[in-house]
Amino acid sequence: xxxxxxxxxxxxxxxxxxxxxxxxxxxxxxxxxxxxxxxxxxxxxxxxxxxxxxxxxxxxxxxxxxxxxxxxxxxxxxxxxxxxxxxxxxxxxxxxxxxxxxxxxxxxxxxxxxxxxxxxxxxxxxxxxxxxxxxxxxxxxxxxxxxxxxxxxxxxxxxxxxxxxxxxxxxxxxxxxxxxxxxxxxxxxxxxxxxxxxxxxxxxxxxxxxxxxxxxxxxxxxxxxxxxxxxxxxxxxxxxxxxxxxxxxxxxxxxxxxxxxxxxxxxxxxxxxxxxxxxxxxxxxxxxxxxxxxxxxxxxxxxxxxxxxxxxxxxxxxxxxxxxxxxxxxxxxxxxxxxxxxxxxxxxxxxxxxxxxxxxxxxxxxxxxxxxxxxxxxxxxxxxxxxxxxxxxxxxxxxxxxxxxxxxxxxxxxxxxxxxxxxxxxxxxxxxxxxxxxxxxxxxxxxxxxxxxxxxxxxxxxxxxxxxxxxxxxxxxxxxxxxxxxxxxxxxxxxxxxxxxxxxxxxxxxxxxxxxxxxxxxxxxxxxxxxxxxxxxxxxx
Length: 541
Fold this sequence. Notes:
Blueprint: H1 10-19, H2 48-51, E1 52-53, H3 66-69, H4 72-86, E2 104-105, H5 110-113, E3 135-141, E4 158-159, E5 173-179, E6 195-201, E7 212-213, E8 216-217, E9 223-229, H6 236-240, H7 244-257, E10 266-267, E11 270-271, H8 304-311, H9 327-334, H10 337-346, H11 357-366, H12 376-387, E12 391-392, H13 400-411, E13 422-423, E14 450-451, E15 459-460, E16 473-474, H14 484-488, H15 502-507, H16 517-524, H17 528-540
Parallel strand pairs: 1-12
Antiparallel strand pairs: 2-4, 3-9, 5-6, 7-8, 10-11, 13-14, 15-16
Protein backbone atom coordinates (compact mmCIF):
# COMPACT_ATOMS: atom_id res chain seq x y z
CA UNK A 1 0.00 0.00 0.00
CA UNK A 2 1.15 3.55 -0.67
CA UNK A 3 1.82 5.36 2.59
CA UNK A 4 1.34 9.05 3.29
CA UNK A 5 4.32 11.33 3.92
CA UNK A 6 3.95 14.68 5.65
CA UNK A 7 6.17 17.18 7.42
CA UNK A 8 5.46 19.11 10.57
CA UNK A 9 7.18 22.24 11.75
CA UNK A 10 9.60 21.88 14.65
CA UNK A 11 7.85 24.56 16.70
CA UNK A 12 4.47 22.89 16.32
CA UNK A 13 5.97 19.49 17.19
CA UNK A 14 7.39 20.87 20.44
CA UNK A 15 4.16 22.67 21.28
CA UNK A 16 2.08 19.55 20.84
CA UNK A 17 4.46 17.37 22.81
CA UNK A 18 4.27 19.85 25.68
CA UNK A 19 0.47 19.95 25.47
CA UNK A 20 0.39 16.15 25.70
CA UNK A 21 1.35 16.41 29.36
CA UNK A 22 -1.84 18.23 30.41
CA UNK A 23 -5.64 17.83 30.41
CA UNK A 24 -5.81 14.02 30.46
CA UNK A 25 -9.58 14.09 30.70
CA UNK A 26 -9.84 16.02 27.46
CA UNK A 27 -12.98 17.78 28.64
CA UNK A 28 -11.93 21.35 27.87
CA UNK A 29 -14.96 22.84 26.13
CA UNK A 30 -13.15 25.85 24.70
CA UNK A 31 -13.17 26.62 21.00
CA UNK A 32 -10.83 24.61 18.79
CA UNK A 33 -8.21 26.70 16.96
CA UNK A 34 -8.96 26.75 13.25
CA UNK A 35 -6.57 25.57 10.54
CA UNK A 36 -6.36 29.08 9.03
CA UNK A 37 -4.62 30.22 12.24
CA UNK A 38 -1.48 28.67 10.75
CA UNK A 39 -1.42 25.60 12.97
CA UNK A 40 -3.71 22.85 14.16
CA UNK A 41 -4.71 22.32 17.75
CA UNK A 42 -3.69 19.13 19.51
CA UNK A 43 -7.17 17.65 19.12
CA UNK A 44 -6.69 17.19 15.39
CA UNK A 45 -3.80 14.86 16.24
CA UNK A 46 -5.95 11.96 17.39
CA UNK A 47 -2.92 9.70 17.79
CA UNK A 48 -0.57 12.43 18.99
CA UNK A 49 2.34 13.70 16.92
CA UNK A 50 3.92 10.22 16.71
CA UNK A 51 0.73 8.29 15.93
CA UNK A 52 -1.44 10.40 13.59
CA UNK A 53 -1.74 10.08 9.81
CA UNK A 54 -3.21 12.98 7.85
CA UNK A 55 -5.01 10.85 5.31
CA UNK A 56 -8.78 10.82 4.86
CA UNK A 57 -8.97 8.69 1.73
CA UNK A 58 -10.15 5.09 1.46
CA UNK A 59 -6.73 3.96 2.71
CA UNK A 60 -6.89 6.07 5.89
CA UNK A 61 -6.90 3.03 8.19
CA UNK A 62 -3.83 1.50 6.53
CA UNK A 63 -1.25 4.18 7.23
CA UNK A 64 1.94 3.76 9.24
CA UNK A 65 2.67 6.10 12.13
CA UNK A 66 5.33 8.82 11.98
CA UNK A 67 7.18 6.79 14.62
CA UNK A 68 7.51 4.05 11.98
CA UNK A 69 8.14 6.36 9.03
CA UNK A 70 11.04 8.05 10.82
CA UNK A 71 12.97 4.76 11.02
CA UNK A 72 13.84 3.22 7.61
CA UNK A 73 14.40 -0.25 9.08
CA UNK A 74 11.08 -0.16 10.87
CA UNK A 75 9.31 1.23 7.80
CA UNK A 76 10.56 -1.70 5.71
CA UNK A 77 9.45 -4.18 8.39
CA UNK A 78 6.02 -2.51 8.45
CA UNK A 79 5.63 -3.09 4.70
CA UNK A 80 6.60 -6.76 5.07
CA UNK A 81 4.36 -7.24 8.08
CA UNK A 82 1.40 -5.77 6.23
CA UNK A 83 1.48 -8.67 3.79
CA UNK A 84 0.63 -11.11 6.58
CA UNK A 85 -2.58 -9.17 7.15
CA UNK A 86 -3.48 -8.90 3.47
CA UNK A 87 -2.43 -12.29 2.07
CA UNK A 88 -4.52 -15.44 1.98
CA UNK A 89 -3.11 -18.43 3.86
CA UNK A 90 -3.18 -21.77 2.07
CA UNK A 91 -3.02 -25.43 3.07
CA UNK A 92 0.47 -26.89 3.06
CA UNK A 93 3.61 -24.97 2.10
CA UNK A 94 3.64 -25.29 -1.66
CA UNK A 95 2.36 -22.83 -4.24
CA UNK A 96 2.58 -19.75 -2.00
CA UNK A 97 4.52 -18.17 0.81
CA UNK A 98 1.60 -18.14 3.27
CA UNK A 99 1.30 -21.85 3.95
CA UNK A 100 0.18 -23.75 7.03
CA UNK A 101 -3.58 -23.19 7.04
CA UNK A 102 -5.49 -25.62 9.24
CA UNK A 103 -6.24 -28.37 10.02
CA UNK A 104 -9.16 -26.34 11.45
CA UNK A 105 -9.61 -22.66 10.73
CA UNK A 106 -11.96 -19.71 11.08
CA UNK A 107 -10.78 -17.48 8.20
CA UNK A 108 -7.97 -17.95 5.71
CA UNK A 109 -6.86 -14.33 5.93
CA UNK A 110 -7.02 -11.41 8.35
CA UNK A 111 -8.41 -8.88 5.92
CA UNK A 112 -11.53 -11.00 5.44
CA UNK A 113 -12.47 -10.12 9.03
CA UNK A 114 -11.24 -6.51 8.90
CA UNK A 115 -12.40 -5.05 5.58
CA UNK A 116 -10.29 -2.00 4.76
CA UNK A 117 -8.50 -2.60 8.09
CA UNK A 118 -11.68 -1.62 9.92
CA UNK A 119 -14.63 -3.08 11.79
CA UNK A 120 -16.35 -6.18 10.39
CA UNK A 121 -19.67 -5.52 8.69
CA UNK A 122 -23.20 -6.75 9.32
CA UNK A 123 -23.94 -10.00 7.49
CA UNK A 124 -27.18 -11.73 6.53
CA UNK A 125 -25.57 -15.16 6.73
CA UNK A 126 -22.59 -16.78 8.41
CA UNK A 127 -20.03 -17.75 5.77
CA UNK A 128 -16.28 -17.70 6.35
CA UNK A 129 -15.70 -16.93 2.68
CA UNK A 130 -17.79 -13.74 2.61
CA UNK A 131 -15.45 -10.76 2.49
CA UNK A 132 -16.03 -8.43 5.41
CA UNK A 133 -17.54 -11.12 7.62
CA UNK A 134 -15.84 -10.27 10.88
CA UNK A 135 -18.21 -12.37 12.94
CA UNK A 136 -16.87 -14.75 15.52
CA UNK A 137 -19.31 -17.18 17.10
CA UNK A 138 -19.70 -16.95 20.85
CA UNK A 139 -21.12 -20.27 22.03
CA UNK A 140 -21.58 -20.65 25.75
CA UNK A 141 -23.48 -22.22 28.63
CA UNK A 142 -26.46 -19.96 29.35
CA UNK A 143 -26.51 -21.18 32.95
CA UNK A 144 -23.14 -19.62 33.83
CA UNK A 145 -21.92 -17.73 30.73
CA UNK A 146 -18.94 -20.12 30.38
CA UNK A 147 -17.65 -21.11 26.94
CA UNK A 148 -18.36 -24.71 25.89
CA UNK A 149 -15.25 -26.77 26.56
CA UNK A 150 -15.74 -29.12 23.61
CA UNK A 151 -15.35 -26.17 21.22
CA UNK A 152 -12.54 -23.66 21.05
CA UNK A 153 -13.29 -20.20 22.46
CA UNK A 154 -13.57 -18.94 18.89
CA UNK A 155 -15.34 -21.88 17.23
CA UNK A 156 -14.07 -23.04 13.87
CA UNK A 157 -16.35 -23.67 10.90
CA UNK A 158 -13.82 -24.75 8.26
CA UNK A 159 -11.33 -27.64 7.98
CA UNK A 160 -8.78 -29.02 5.52
CA UNK A 161 -9.08 -32.51 4.10
CA UNK A 162 -9.70 -35.07 5.49
CA UNK A 163 -10.94 -33.34 8.63
CA UNK A 164 -14.44 -32.06 9.27
CA UNK A 165 -15.34 -28.70 10.76
CA UNK A 166 -16.48 -28.67 14.40
CA UNK A 167 -19.60 -26.79 13.20
CA UNK A 168 -21.30 -27.05 9.83
CA UNK A 169 -21.58 -23.37 8.96
CA UNK A 170 -24.16 -24.05 6.24
CA UNK A 171 -26.62 -24.78 9.05
CA UNK A 172 -25.96 -21.55 10.98
CA UNK A 173 -28.87 -19.16 10.64
CA UNK A 174 -28.76 -15.41 11.30
CA UNK A 175 -32.14 -13.74 11.53
CA UNK A 176 -32.35 -9.97 11.88
CA UNK A 177 -35.33 -8.98 13.99
CA UNK A 178 -36.96 -5.62 14.47
CA UNK A 179 -36.89 -4.06 17.91
CA UNK A 180 -39.19 -1.30 19.16
CA UNK A 181 -37.98 0.66 22.17
CA UNK A 182 -40.09 2.33 24.85
CA UNK A 183 -40.40 5.46 22.72
CA UNK A 184 -41.69 3.58 19.68
CA UNK A 185 -38.45 4.30 17.78
CA UNK A 186 -39.49 7.93 17.48
CA UNK A 187 -38.17 11.24 18.76
CA UNK A 188 -40.61 13.78 20.15
CA UNK A 189 -40.31 15.89 16.98
CA UNK A 190 -41.53 13.00 14.84
CA UNK A 191 -38.24 11.75 13.38
CA UNK A 192 -38.10 7.96 13.42
CA UNK A 193 -35.30 5.42 13.52
CA UNK A 194 -35.08 1.66 13.17
CA UNK A 195 -33.49 -0.85 15.51
CA UNK A 196 -32.61 -4.44 14.63
CA UNK A 197 -30.75 -7.22 16.42
CA UNK A 198 -29.50 -10.70 15.42
CA UNK A 199 -30.96 -14.01 16.52
CA UNK A 200 -28.50 -16.82 15.77
CA UNK A 201 -29.50 -20.46 15.76
CA UNK A 202 -27.44 -23.60 15.22
CA UNK A 203 -29.29 -26.94 15.18
CA UNK A 204 -27.86 -29.75 17.25
CA UNK A 205 -26.98 -31.82 14.18
CA UNK A 206 -24.64 -29.04 12.97
CA UNK A 207 -22.12 -29.86 15.71
CA UNK A 208 -19.48 -32.44 14.87
CA UNK A 209 -18.40 -32.69 18.49
CA UNK A 210 -20.56 -33.44 21.55
CA UNK A 211 -21.74 -30.37 23.45
CA UNK A 212 -19.86 -30.09 26.75
CA UNK A 213 -19.57 -27.43 29.43
CA UNK A 214 -16.86 -27.83 32.04
CA UNK A 215 -16.15 -31.23 30.53
CA UNK A 216 -19.71 -32.41 31.19
CA UNK A 217 -22.51 -32.94 28.65
CA UNK A 218 -24.84 -29.97 28.20
CA UNK A 219 -28.32 -30.00 26.78
CA UNK A 220 -28.73 -28.18 23.49
CA UNK A 221 -31.43 -26.00 25.03
CA UNK A 222 -28.84 -24.59 27.48
CA UNK A 223 -26.49 -23.45 24.72
CA UNK A 224 -26.35 -19.69 24.12
CA UNK A 225 -25.15 -18.21 20.83
CA UNK A 226 -24.09 -14.64 20.16
CA UNK A 227 -22.11 -12.83 17.49
CA UNK A 228 -19.10 -10.61 18.07
CA UNK A 229 -17.58 -8.73 15.19
CA UNK A 230 -13.98 -7.71 14.76
CA UNK A 231 -13.06 -4.13 15.63
CA UNK A 232 -10.80 -1.65 13.87
CA UNK A 233 -7.13 -2.38 14.48
CA UNK A 234 -5.57 1.01 13.81
CA UNK A 235 -4.15 2.82 16.82
CA UNK A 236 -3.90 -0.20 19.10
CA UNK A 237 -0.21 0.52 19.74
CA UNK A 238 -1.21 3.90 21.14
CA UNK A 239 -3.78 2.36 23.48
CA UNK A 240 -1.08 -0.02 24.65
CA UNK A 241 1.10 2.98 25.52
CA UNK A 242 -1.39 4.28 28.11
CA UNK A 243 0.28 3.69 31.51
CA UNK A 244 -1.08 0.96 33.75
CA UNK A 245 -1.47 3.39 36.64
CA UNK A 246 -3.55 5.70 34.44
CA UNK A 247 -5.93 2.83 33.73
CA UNK A 248 -6.18 2.09 37.43
CA UNK A 249 -6.87 5.76 38.19
CA UNK A 250 -9.73 5.75 35.66
CA UNK A 251 -11.32 2.71 37.30
CA UNK A 252 -10.95 4.30 40.73
CA UNK A 253 -12.45 7.58 39.46
CA UNK A 254 -15.51 5.80 38.12
CA UNK A 255 -15.87 3.67 41.23
CA UNK A 256 -15.75 6.81 43.38
CA UNK A 257 -18.44 8.38 41.18
CA UNK A 258 -20.67 5.39 41.87
CA UNK A 259 -20.59 4.18 38.27
CA UNK A 260 -21.16 0.43 37.75
CA UNK A 261 -17.95 -1.37 36.80
CA UNK A 262 -17.33 -5.07 36.44
CA UNK A 263 -16.61 -6.38 39.96
CA UNK A 264 -14.75 -9.33 38.49
CA UNK A 265 -12.07 -6.90 37.31
CA UNK A 266 -11.94 -4.03 39.82
CA UNK A 267 -13.39 -3.36 43.26
CA UNK A 268 -12.48 -1.41 46.37
CA UNK A 269 -9.85 0.63 44.59
CA UNK A 270 -7.85 -2.42 43.52
CA UNK A 271 -7.63 -4.87 40.63
CA UNK A 272 -9.54 -8.07 41.35
CA UNK A 273 -8.15 -9.82 38.32
CA UNK A 274 -5.33 -8.99 35.91
CA UNK A 275 -4.06 -10.54 32.71
CA UNK A 276 -1.49 -13.34 32.82
CA UNK A 277 -0.01 -15.81 30.36
CA UNK A 278 0.67 -19.15 32.03
CA UNK A 279 1.50 -21.01 28.80
CA UNK A 280 4.30 -19.00 27.19
CA UNK A 281 4.79 -16.58 30.10
CA UNK A 282 5.37 -16.66 33.84
CA UNK A 283 1.68 -16.86 34.75
CA UNK A 284 1.77 -13.83 37.04
CA UNK A 285 -1.28 -11.56 37.05
CA UNK A 286 0.41 -8.19 36.60
CA UNK A 287 -1.11 -6.62 33.50
CA UNK A 288 -4.41 -4.66 33.43
CA UNK A 289 -6.95 -5.79 30.86
CA UNK A 290 -7.42 -3.31 28.03
CA UNK A 291 -8.27 -5.11 24.76
CA UNK A 292 -11.32 -6.89 23.26
CA UNK A 293 -15.01 -6.35 24.03
CA UNK A 294 -14.76 -8.87 26.85
CA UNK A 295 -11.55 -7.32 28.23
CA UNK A 296 -9.85 -10.68 27.83
CA UNK A 297 -6.39 -9.38 26.92
CA UNK A 298 -3.68 -7.24 28.47
CA UNK A 299 -0.68 -5.71 26.65
CA UNK A 300 -0.88 -5.55 22.87
CA UNK A 301 2.15 -7.81 22.46
CA UNK A 302 0.03 -10.69 23.82
CA UNK A 303 -3.39 -9.44 22.80
CA UNK A 304 -5.92 -10.12 20.04
CA UNK A 305 -3.48 -9.82 17.14
CA UNK A 306 -1.04 -12.25 18.73
CA UNK A 307 -3.87 -14.70 19.16
CA UNK A 308 -5.60 -14.14 15.82
CA UNK A 309 -2.55 -14.59 13.58
CA UNK A 310 -2.30 -18.04 15.16
CA UNK A 311 -5.76 -19.35 16.01
CA UNK A 312 -7.84 -17.86 13.20
CA UNK A 313 -5.70 -19.70 10.64
CA UNK A 314 -4.04 -22.30 12.91
CA UNK A 315 -0.63 -21.29 11.52
CA UNK A 316 2.04 -22.30 14.05
CA UNK A 317 5.02 -20.26 15.22
CA UNK A 318 7.96 -20.89 17.54
CA UNK A 319 6.09 -20.05 20.74
CA UNK A 320 2.90 -21.85 19.66
CA UNK A 321 3.90 -25.10 18.04
CA UNK A 322 0.50 -26.65 18.51
CA UNK A 323 -2.98 -26.43 17.00
CA UNK A 324 -5.85 -24.33 18.27
CA UNK A 325 -7.84 -27.43 19.11
CA UNK A 326 -9.77 -29.20 21.84
CA UNK A 327 -9.03 -32.75 22.95
CA UNK A 328 -12.72 -33.50 22.42
CA UNK A 329 -12.41 -32.67 18.73
CA UNK A 330 -9.19 -34.68 18.39
CA UNK A 331 -10.87 -37.71 19.95
CA UNK A 332 -13.91 -37.52 17.67
CA UNK A 333 -11.84 -36.95 14.52
CA UNK A 334 -9.38 -39.75 15.31
CA UNK A 335 -12.28 -42.20 15.62
CA UNK A 336 -14.05 -41.03 12.45
CA UNK A 337 -13.84 -43.73 9.72
CA UNK A 338 -13.93 -41.08 6.97
CA UNK A 339 -10.95 -39.26 8.45
CA UNK A 340 -9.09 -42.51 9.08
CA UNK A 341 -9.58 -43.64 5.47
CA UNK A 342 -7.86 -40.55 4.00
CA UNK A 343 -5.50 -39.40 6.74
CA UNK A 344 -2.29 -40.94 5.39
CA UNK A 345 -3.09 -39.68 1.87
CA UNK A 346 -2.84 -36.13 3.20
CA UNK A 347 -0.38 -36.61 6.08
CA UNK A 348 1.91 -39.55 5.17
CA UNK A 349 4.69 -38.13 7.36
CA UNK A 350 2.60 -38.81 10.44
CA UNK A 351 2.49 -42.60 9.96
CA UNK A 352 4.23 -44.20 12.94
CA UNK A 353 5.32 -47.81 13.17
CA UNK A 354 3.35 -49.74 15.76
CA UNK A 355 0.59 -47.08 15.94
CA UNK A 356 -2.99 -47.40 14.81
CA UNK A 357 -4.37 -44.73 12.48
CA UNK A 358 -6.51 -43.50 15.38
CA UNK A 359 -3.40 -42.95 17.47
CA UNK A 360 -1.57 -41.19 14.62
CA UNK A 361 -4.49 -38.82 13.98
CA UNK A 362 -4.86 -37.95 17.65
CA UNK A 363 -1.12 -37.45 18.11
CA UNK A 364 -0.97 -35.14 15.08
CA UNK A 365 -3.89 -33.04 16.21
CA UNK A 366 -2.66 -32.70 19.80
CA UNK A 367 1.09 -32.54 19.11
CA UNK A 368 2.90 -29.79 21.03
CA UNK A 369 6.04 -29.64 18.84
CA UNK A 370 4.73 -29.13 15.33
CA UNK A 371 6.92 -27.58 12.61
CA UNK A 372 7.05 -23.78 12.68
CA UNK A 373 5.04 -22.25 9.84
CA UNK A 374 5.53 -18.54 10.67
CA UNK A 375 9.13 -17.88 11.67
CA UNK A 376 10.29 -15.36 14.27
CA UNK A 377 11.41 -12.71 11.77
CA UNK A 378 8.02 -12.85 10.07
CA UNK A 379 6.26 -12.51 13.41
CA UNK A 380 8.36 -9.47 14.34
CA UNK A 381 7.49 -7.85 11.00
CA UNK A 382 3.82 -8.56 11.63
CA UNK A 383 4.06 -6.84 15.00
CA UNK A 384 5.88 -3.80 13.67
CA UNK A 385 2.89 -3.44 11.36
CA UNK A 386 0.31 -4.14 14.08
CA UNK A 387 1.85 -1.73 16.60
CA UNK A 388 2.67 0.73 13.84
CA UNK A 389 -0.80 1.43 12.42
CA UNK A 390 -1.64 5.11 12.70
CA UNK A 391 -4.91 6.76 13.64
CA UNK A 392 -6.51 9.04 11.02
CA UNK A 393 -6.40 12.70 12.01
CA UNK A 394 -9.66 14.30 13.08
CA UNK A 395 -11.59 16.09 10.36
CA UNK A 396 -13.76 19.19 10.15
CA UNK A 397 -13.15 20.27 13.74
CA UNK A 398 -13.32 23.88 12.52
CA UNK A 399 -16.92 23.40 11.34
CA UNK A 400 -19.29 25.29 13.68
CA UNK A 401 -21.77 22.40 13.63
CA UNK A 402 -19.04 19.93 14.62
CA UNK A 403 -18.02 22.25 17.45
CA UNK A 404 -21.65 22.42 18.55
CA UNK A 405 -21.83 18.62 18.56
CA UNK A 406 -18.61 18.44 20.54
CA UNK A 407 -20.07 20.67 23.24
CA UNK A 408 -23.35 18.70 23.38
CA UNK A 409 -21.45 15.39 23.55
CA UNK A 410 -19.81 16.56 26.76
CA UNK A 411 -22.91 18.21 28.22
CA UNK A 412 -24.92 15.00 27.83
CA UNK A 413 -22.30 13.01 29.74
CA UNK A 414 -21.19 10.89 26.78
CA UNK A 415 -17.58 11.80 27.56
CA UNK A 416 -17.86 10.06 30.93
CA UNK A 417 -17.44 6.64 29.27
CA UNK A 418 -16.19 7.80 25.88
CA UNK A 419 -13.34 9.61 27.61
CA UNK A 420 -11.88 11.96 25.01
CA UNK A 421 -8.15 11.87 25.69
CA UNK A 422 -5.31 10.14 27.47
CA UNK A 423 -1.59 10.81 27.78
CA UNK A 424 0.76 7.94 27.06
CA UNK A 425 3.68 7.13 29.35
CA UNK A 426 7.26 6.21 28.52
CA UNK A 427 5.88 3.21 26.59
CA UNK A 428 8.44 0.68 27.73
CA UNK A 429 5.83 -1.91 26.85
CA UNK A 430 5.72 -5.46 28.15
CA UNK A 431 4.93 -8.85 26.65
CA UNK A 432 3.32 -11.45 28.94
CA UNK A 433 4.20 -14.17 26.41
CA UNK A 434 7.90 -13.24 26.81
CA UNK A 435 8.54 -13.21 23.05
CA UNK A 436 9.42 -9.51 23.01
CA UNK A 437 11.62 -7.89 25.61
CA UNK A 438 10.25 -4.94 27.56
CA UNK A 439 10.41 -1.90 25.30
CA UNK A 440 11.83 -4.06 22.47
CA UNK A 441 13.69 -1.72 20.10
CA UNK A 442 12.37 -3.56 17.06
CA UNK A 443 8.86 -2.20 17.67
CA UNK A 444 7.60 1.40 17.50
CA UNK A 445 7.02 3.36 20.70
CA UNK A 446 4.78 6.34 21.47
CA UNK A 447 6.07 8.11 24.60
CA UNK A 448 4.27 11.10 26.10
CA UNK A 449 1.63 11.61 23.44
CA UNK A 450 -1.77 13.24 23.95
CA UNK A 451 -4.16 10.85 22.16
CA UNK A 452 -7.91 11.09 21.59
CA UNK A 453 -9.50 7.61 21.40
CA UNK A 454 -12.82 8.56 23.04
CA UNK A 455 -12.89 5.50 25.27
CA UNK A 456 -12.33 4.90 28.98
CA UNK A 457 -11.22 1.31 28.21
CA UNK A 458 -13.64 0.19 30.94
CA UNK A 459 -16.57 -2.21 30.58
CA UNK A 460 -20.15 -1.00 30.92
CA UNK A 461 -23.61 -2.49 30.35
CA UNK A 462 -26.25 -1.37 27.83
CA UNK A 463 -28.76 -4.14 28.61
CA UNK A 464 -29.63 -4.69 24.94
CA UNK A 465 -31.88 -7.50 23.77
CA UNK A 466 -29.66 -10.48 22.85
CA UNK A 467 -26.83 -8.64 24.56
CA UNK A 468 -23.15 -9.51 24.50
CA UNK A 469 -22.22 -12.53 26.62
CA UNK A 470 -22.08 -11.50 30.33
CA UNK A 471 -23.58 -8.08 29.47
CA UNK A 472 -20.27 -6.30 30.14
CA UNK A 473 -18.65 -4.67 27.10
CA UNK A 474 -15.57 -2.46 26.85
CA UNK A 475 -16.28 1.07 25.63
CA UNK A 476 -15.33 1.07 21.96
CA UNK A 477 -12.91 3.82 20.86
CA UNK A 478 -14.66 6.24 18.49
CA UNK A 479 -11.58 7.69 16.81
CA UNK A 480 -11.61 7.30 13.04
CA UNK A 481 -15.01 5.58 12.90
CA UNK A 482 -16.47 8.35 10.75
CA UNK A 483 -14.32 7.05 7.88
CA UNK A 484 -15.75 3.53 8.06
CA UNK A 485 -18.05 3.86 5.06
CA UNK A 486 -15.18 5.14 2.94
CA UNK A 487 -12.53 2.70 4.17
CA UNK A 488 -14.47 -0.46 5.03
CA UNK A 489 -17.58 -0.06 2.88
CA UNK A 490 -20.10 0.13 5.71
CA UNK A 491 -21.10 2.17 8.76
CA UNK A 492 -22.13 -0.71 11.03
CA UNK A 493 -21.42 -0.27 14.73
CA UNK A 494 -21.61 -2.01 18.12
CA UNK A 495 -20.26 -5.43 19.00
CA UNK A 496 -22.49 -7.39 16.62
CA UNK A 497 -22.99 -4.70 13.96
CA UNK A 498 -26.66 -4.26 14.88
CA UNK A 499 -26.40 -0.48 14.53
CA UNK A 500 -26.26 0.59 10.89
CA UNK A 501 -25.52 4.23 11.64
CA UNK A 502 -24.63 6.55 14.50
CA UNK A 503 -28.24 7.30 15.54
CA UNK A 504 -29.02 3.60 15.92
CA UNK A 505 -25.84 3.08 17.92
CA UNK A 506 -26.79 5.91 20.25
CA UNK A 507 -30.34 4.69 20.76
CA UNK A 508 -29.17 1.17 21.60
CA UNK A 509 -27.75 2.84 24.73
CA UNK A 510 -31.24 3.78 25.90
CA UNK A 511 -32.62 0.82 27.83
CA UNK A 512 -34.02 1.72 31.25
CA UNK A 513 -31.27 -0.40 32.89
CA UNK A 514 -28.47 0.86 30.65
CA UNK A 515 -25.47 2.52 32.28
CA UNK A 516 -25.87 5.26 29.67
CA UNK A 517 -29.59 5.90 30.17
CA UNK A 518 -29.18 9.45 31.53
CA UNK A 519 -27.25 10.51 28.45
CA UNK A 520 -29.95 9.12 26.17
CA UNK A 521 -32.65 11.00 28.08
CA UNK A 522 -30.70 14.18 27.36
CA UNK A 523 -30.09 13.24 23.74
CA UNK A 524 -33.81 12.75 23.19
CA UNK A 525 -34.48 16.31 24.38
CA UNK A 526 -32.27 17.78 21.66
CA UNK A 527 -33.68 19.27 18.49
CA UNK A 528 -33.05 17.50 15.19
CA UNK A 529 -30.36 20.05 14.30
CA UNK A 530 -28.64 19.38 17.62
CA UNK A 531 -28.84 15.61 17.17
CA UNK A 532 -27.36 16.00 13.70
CA UNK A 533 -24.56 18.09 15.20
CA UNK A 534 -23.72 15.29 17.65
CA UNK A 535 -23.59 12.80 14.77
CA UNK A 536 -21.35 15.10 12.74
CA UNK A 537 -19.00 15.46 15.69
CA UNK A 538 -18.78 11.70 16.23
CA UNK A 539 -18.04 11.25 12.53
CA UNK A 540 -15.36 13.95 12.68
CA UNK A 541 -13.23 12.46 15.42
